[in-house]
Amino acid sequence: MTSGVPHDPEGHEAQIPDRYMSHALHYPTIEFSDLDAFKRSLLIWDRIHRIVPSGYVPEDHAEIVTAVGAGVVQNLTVDDTEKSRAANRFLDFYALRESPNTRLVWPAGFSSETFTRINPDKIDAKLLPLFEQLARRLTADGFLEVPHEHAGGYMFYLAAAVAQQRALELTTDSSDYWAVGTYFANEGGFTEYVYDEQADAYLANLAIDDLLPNDLASVDIDVLLRFREDTVELRNAFQRELKLLQNEISRCNNKEHARYIVEDFIKRFERAKAEYRASLGFFRKADVYSIFSVGLPVAASIIALPIAGGDPYTPVRLGVGALIGAVSALATREMGYKPKSVGSYLVDAERLTRTPNWLLHRKFEEFIND
Fold first, then answer.
1. Distance between CA atoms of residues 185 and 169, nearest Å
2. Which residues form a coiled coil (predicted)?
3. Is residue 25 classed as helix, strand or coil in its secondary structure?
4. Alpha helices by DSSP H, the chain
5. pTM
6. Between β-strands 316-319 and 322-329, what pairing exists: parallel, antiparallel or unpaired?
């Protein structure tokens, strides 16, 4: 049985593609529901892709249409072969997690029974309408190999599989969607024990909290596109150092290496971020900065470094404007390896707290168990 997202059980160091982390796949919706968050995303990514069924015309805001015309937003078509391959792997993925012989879980957030008894404020209540929408789109697209009740989960799975296949990062502006997408981006490597202080590895959240302007709604898209052209080298330098830092954090498995990361990679990242941040002074400096963050698999050693013996879920600052904390324990014992994650980003549209991993931990707990 396969997960659809290749892994590297040997622990070899990942190679960084030439374009670093400059291209991302927006999920799970086709349209961009928050224009302000979309504009902030343009300050991170060189190009944003989205999966659009053949024959479907997105109902885009005029400024999104401009971005599409400029090539900043690109529509991806997933052909029948890709969808069929992903569907078969998804059904294997689901069957493994429903098997009594594994502790890996199929999240309660996908259960129709769960939806009948949830609090309207829970993550499941917010996801249900989206799952129904995705199921209708799956049916309208003439692709019925996945049962209707699993269509919502499959569409998230498909996004992770397409991102991995095409060397894209994943990006969304909803913490609820992030919880689901990150589950699949990490190969579903989770048990019901989301909170576990004694785990060997964790899904962590690396948050950058002093870079992006908080409000770009009033900034014309043409102005933003010109700014992107003028600052492409600074943005690419920031992208590269962030990707290098992520890779080092993910492959770290001892405290000596963790200290090296703090002393070397963090300092390099801080320099690249500071230079890019200075260019963002073009926008109003009075604005409170918005958080964006990424989920990544880490060994316990990197979480425990700053405060030995501390709670891995307590966020700690790695450097200026960067903090990290656990979101969930990873089931490395059950899987036999630490999953090779697809980068799963959240560009905050919800004004998250200054310690987002706590909120994301709660969202993840609700998705897995409630």
1. 10
2. 228-255
3. strand
4. 35-41, 62-69, 80-98, 112-115, 123-140, 151-165, 175-185, 221-230, 232-251, 255-260, 266-279, 300-304, 332-335, 356-369
5. 0.85
6. antiparallel
Nearest to 207 by CA among 126, 286, 325, 117: 325
Task: Give the pLDDT confidence score for residue 81 in this predicted structure.
Answer: 81
Same domain, 180 and 245: no
Phi-psi region of 187 (alpha: psi -120 to 50; beta: other; left: phi over 0): left
- Answer yes or no: is 37 within a domain: yes
Residue holding tokens 């078969």? 88
Closest of 24, 327, 81 to residue 186, by C-alpha: 327
Q: How far apart are CA 206 and CA 356, in angstroms?
A: 9
Quick: pLDDT tens for 97-126.
888 888 999 998 887 555 444 455 655 566
Element counts in the chain: helices (H) and strands (E) = 14, 9
| pLDDT score of 104 | 92
Q: Which of 201, 191, 290 is nearest to 253 (CA)?
A: 201
What is the strand order of the sheet 344-347 is part of? 73-76, 47-51, 23-26, 169-172, 344-347, 289-299, 201-213, 322-329, 316-319
Structural domain contains residue 168: yes
**Cα separation of 27 and 48, whole Å?**
10
Residue with token string 């290098």: 244
Residue 242's nearest CA partner among 214, 218, 271, 213 is 271
List of residues 6+ apart from 55 with CB closer than 8 A: none
By the 8 A CB rule, do 327 and 364 touch? yes
Which residue, 160, 190, 220, sits at the end of a domain? 190
The CA distance from 159 to 86, in Å, is 10
The 3-state DSSP class for residue 203 equals strand
Count of domains observed in the chain: 2
Residue range(s) defining the domain that contains residue 29: 19-190
